[in-house]
Amino acid sequence: xxxxxxxxxxxxxxxxxxxxxxxxxxxxxxxxxxxxxxxxxxxxxxxxxxxxxxxxxxxxxxxxxxxxxxxxxxxxxxxxxxxxxxxxxxxxxxxxxxxxxxxxxxxxxxxxxxxxxxxxxxxxxxxxxxxxxxxxxxxxxxxxxxxxxxxxxxxxxxxxxxxxxxxxxxxxxxxxxxxxxxxxxxxxxxxxxxxxxxxxxxxxxxxxxxxxxxxxxxxxxxxxxxxxxxxxxxxxxxxxxxxxxxxxxxxxxxxxxxxxxxxxxxxxxxxxxxxxxxxxxxxxxxxxxxxxxxxxxxxxxxxxxxxxxxxxxxxxxxxxxxxxxxxxxxxxxxxxxxxxxxxxxxxxxxxxxxxxxxxxxxxxxxxxxxxxxxxxxxxxxxxxxxxxxxxxxxxxxxxxxxxxxxxxxxxxxxxxxxxxxxxxxxxxxxxxxxxxxxxxxxxxxxxxxxxxxxxxxxxxxxxxxxxxxxxxxxxxxxxxxxxxxxxxxxxxxxxxxxxxxxxxxxxxxxxxxxxxxxxxxxxxxxxxxxxxxxxxxxxxxxxxxxxxxxxxxxxxxxxxxxxxxxxxxxxxxxxxxxxxxxxxxxxxxxxxxxxxxxxxxxxxxxxxxxxxxxxxxxxxxxxxxxxxxxxxxxxxxxxxxxxxxxxxxxx
Length: 651
What we know:
Elements: H1 5-24, E1 38-47, E2 56-63, E3 66-71, E4 78-83, E5 88-91, E6 93-95, H2 109-112, E7 116-121, H3 131-141, E8 146-149, E9 151-152, H4 153-161, H5 170-185, E10 191-194, H6 205-212, E11 221-225, H7 236-250, E12 253-256, H8 269-281, E13 286-290, E14 295-299, H9 307-310, H10 314-321, H11 324-341, E15 348-350, E16 355-356, H12 357-364, H13 368-379, E17 383-387, H14 391-399, E18 403-405, H15 420-435, H16 441-448, H17 450-456, E19 472-475, E20 496-501, E21 504-508, E22 511-512, E23 538-550, E24 553-565, E25 572-580, E26 585-598, E27 601-610, E28 616-624, E29 631-638, E30 643-649
Parallel strand pairs: 1-4, 1-5, 6-7, 7-8, 9-10, 10-11, 11-12, 12-13, 13-18
Antiparallel strand pairs: 1-2, 2-3, 5-19, 14-17, 15-16, 15-17, 19-20, 20-21, 21-22, 23-24, 23-30, 24-25, 25-26, 26-27, 27-28, 28-29, 29-30
Helix pairs in contact: 4-5, 5-6, 6-7, 7-8, 11-13, 12-13, 15-16
């Protein structure tokens, strides 16, 4: 498990104490008979549901991996019945920007102890192009958390164009567009890029637009580690403007990933936030993600060695190091980059050997640029933690309404890494909510749950409501806190008490259970990336005759869908009735869930009952008019395995 000794002792002590109680008490836990109505009931907790609306006291019940009741469940039996008085019960946290180690995903202890239940892989444009095979491989090995994946522009560009600084041919552009579409067809949740990284750095803005525009029909988003160049004076603003422009021109939402204010823009985060606000106001939805630290981590040479010196790959770069004249130029430009972006040598730390760059300078008796070159020559392109920015910038970015929390990290067992791998989410909740009040509890949870789910295009995760998948995090607001530091990053956070992944306990009483209930998550064409719609009243109507296509034949069905959601996000009213008579399925809504809407599109999760019986089902309904101008595509799925896709004709 690789737990820190102090925490391990505490957890062992807790388990021993629990065992003694089991041995001595005639009724040690509240256990229901086999006929229990629910799998799990979390009683007397304070629910923060992911919408951003005020918290409230309620019990939460799950069954078959879904949330089926939220309210007063006094007297209801459950197989596992936990009193969570004084704790906050929230949706599981969603990490939109993951660099998870595949070998660590079966345990993912560093993420579970932060409350994370879903990780989005292939960030910064990297990762596998074979999305279907990647997800199948990870799921076969076992997953403690859910995983999804982006299709990475950098990987597509590298495969097609290679490591050299050259223009892509028209044929190569078409090949890359096709690879993007194949990735989306395999379930990718969007297109990621890291235009600050070579060789994708060499692509022009027009080339990037031409490639990622292939995703336009999929109504997804473009997320990018912005390109910060010497030509712009190492300004974050130029890179953020480019990210917004690419998304806008390509017809994709723009997501500025691990947003920061570097170079001359330090202290001016308010102006950078205004770029996103203005884009959204003119109709191009733009969001960001951020982590609560003033240092990032990447490979030592990636952002310090000038781009021209990296042209052609590592071997070509080393040959330039061997040329005295070129080496002198590389050293000078590396120092320029460090001084502008990372506060000079003092801003560079080497976690693998736990040295500051200033230690290396002293060892060799050289400048900071020469020290970087020598390290690359002698020790390879090792990880580097690079400091940037001001606290006031970080707070301004975190407070922007459409900034999600994402750790730029992932499941790992490394103890030579960035503290964000172990502390991001509890640090936001402990420091920026409880201690400084920069964010409120409801808003911080929204940025970890409902907002990233909506940005990605998810329909049944990110919110705590009937019908939603039972990814649930329970934490103590009085004690949640990070403990990881740059010097000792593998310190597990405390305060997260329980984590359910797909309805099963992955973390219980603060200790990992070893459950591997995570799933590989695939996005479909009918799950658009969108702004959150839960902050206002909303209504959606779609009724009429349906044609269901299945197994090469078709059959008739009917749907009546007329739902309203109140502004507080807790009540759905109206009618949902579905009849698939040939299959003997007739359902009607009996318990409110959550209605989410976008242009020409809606999804509802909630509880329905089979007409004429007491059997109930947790359901997800998607109605997509935008994909079918003559009517609508309707997808209905329930927790008992029933799933249909049909075409709805307008009344």
